[in-house]
Design brief:
The chain is mainly alpha-helical. The protein has one domain. Helices cover 84% and strands 0% of the residues. The protein has 4 helices and no strands. It has helices at 3-32, 38-61, 64-84, 89-112. The chain is globular, with a radius of gyration of 16 Å. The chain starts with a helix and ends in a 6-residue tail after the last helix.
Amino acid sequence: MPAFIRVYAAIIAALNIVSMFIIGLGAALSLLAGRPAGLVVAGLQLAMGFLIVRLALGLAKGERLAVCGLCVMYAMIVVLVLVFVSEPVLVKLLVLAFPTVLYLPPLVAAFRRWDCFH
């Protein structure tokens, strides 16, 4: 298992744990402000964050299903940004730059070293 993939997996997991903490704080503040509907959105975001953390840990362990799962998650992110961001194309490309830099290098490296995964 290349160290490059393990480092990227740790970065993906850490960033998602931080974002889950921020989402949890936002949900608590939403509840205190008297808007309980925000809890539904926060719950969905926390579930997605947990799933991505699990996939990142699987990527670090060398699981093929984690590689495929992260491919699906990256594809979903791209589709959601392209469909729901109602800004010009340049803004959409800038929004897509972060997930592309975060997800694409370890996925390409994982597919190049597919035989290292189980």
